[in-house]
Amino acid sequence: MLELLRPFYPIFFAALQGNPEGAHNSVIKILERIWKQRDKYWAKWLIGELENNFCGDYPLLRQRLWGLDFPNPLGLAPGFDKNAQAAGMWKSFGFGFAELGAVTFHIQPGNPPPRMFRLPKDKALLNRMGANNDGAAAIASRLQETWREKERRIPIGINLCKSKITPNREAKEDILASFRLLKPWADYFVVNVSSPNTPGLRELQRGEELESILGALQEENRGEKPILVKIAPDLDKQAIREVIKVARKHQLAGIVATNTTTSREGLKTRILPATGKPIEEEAGGISGLPLQKRSTEIIAYIYQETGGEIPIVGVGGIFDASSAWEKITAGATLVQFYTGWVYQGPWVVPSILGGLSQKVRENGFNHLGEAVGCRSAELLAKQ
Ligand SMILES: Cc1cc2nc3c(=O)[nH]c(=O)nc-3n(C[C@H](O)[C@H](O)[C@H](O)COP(=O)(O)O)c2cc1C
């Protein structure tokens, strides 16, 4: 039945061009409702329909990492389900894992709207949401309720961010407090020090600051949950090496590369139609196609620098199997997307996973894991 809707998705997407955040919130509310009513006949039927359309078995793509089983390597990137309202639903869209948040200790309204814009000429989004979320305590109790009778069906991560009202010197305590509340309700955690929309946050990517946050988190964690760090695509090589050093020292489970970019280079959109202002004057981070090459380069760089020792989650501009394959062969063990999913609709998940399985076979590998990083040196040489 859902297949019949597929040709209409571009029309639906274009019709909502003027209010992307409103469209997004409506989708989240509908999914939350379905999840809450999952015992009702209509919701069961709908979940079944979603699974028939979007879920498949991809034996060549299964990954086991950090003691967790990923049925496939394609995840929903954070920012989509900021308040964990639809946490139980992401498996039904075929994702191999999902990352919720960003969650902050304090409740945050985020920046004033409009704060999410589509740049269709660039296949990109510009967002300056500002980590709007219900706060760690509310999200922890929502997740407790979500997993009440059913265990998590796919690995679930939580993206942790410093609260805006907390000064950088107290970032450690702030993030630690969120982690304590949320620890039982997710399988892995990502420290987000790379969003461009919380003032001063990216400064926490520097060695000393990062060291103090991650050191404290790992002490509290006692090796129980995998903890990763997410970096910006705008870091230079020296800064990336510093992150790697801290990641090694504190035995992080991995590095997520990358968040959105503050660069406006190469954009076809000159004026943001919603505000009439030049794109350079608009605050926020760009995601989607303009980020694709840069994030892949960073993945290849980290892979080469670490000799593949630190798992990488690759994110930025994935739209199809080829762009996902690029990230995997550059060095990513898992990948995530947000913009590509929004632009193309949920049918793109099985299409990417089918395409990836084919690429594994065509390239003579027995399993996706064998392809991780196989082109990293070549990609770096091209830079
Ligand atoms: C509207 C929006 C909100 C986002 N919020 C977060 C966030 O809260 N935390 C985070 O780490 N990344 C956030 N991101 C970044 C995405 O997780 C991802 O790193 C980035 O969009 C690149 O992937 P993509 O090109 O597939 O969208 C957000 C992205 C968008 C578009």
Overall mean pLDDT: 96
User: Helix and strand succession?
Assistant: HHHHEEEEEEHEHEHEHEEEEHEHEHHH
From the helix content, strand content and strand pairing, which structural class follows? alpha/beta
Task: Specify Rg, calculated over alpha carbons.
Answer: 19 Å
Overall spatial form: globular
Major sheet description: 8 strands, parallel, barrel
> Helicity range of the residues?
25-40%
* Beta content: 15-25%
Number of helices: 13
Number of domains: 1
CATH topology: TIM Barrel
The CATH architecture can be given as Alpha-Beta Barrel
| N- to C-terminal distance | 45 Å
What does this structure look like?
- There is one protein chain.
- The chain is α/β, with parallel strands linked by helices and 383 residues long.
- It has one domain: Aldolase class I (TIM Barrel), CATH 3.20.20.70.
- Helix content is 38%, strand content 16%.
- The strands form 4 sheets. The protein has an 8-stranded parallel beta barrel with strand order 3-4-7-8-9-10-14-15, surrounded by 5 helices. A 3-stranded antiparallel beta sheet has the order 5-6-13, with no helix packed on it. Strands 1-2 form a two-stranded antiparallel ribbon.
- Helix 8 crosses helix 9 and helix 9 packs across helix 13.
- The structure holds flavin mononucleotide.
- Flavin mononucleotide binds next to strand 4, strand 6, strand 13 and helix 11.
- Flavin mononucleotide (FMN) binds next to strand 4, strand 6, strand 13 and helix 11.
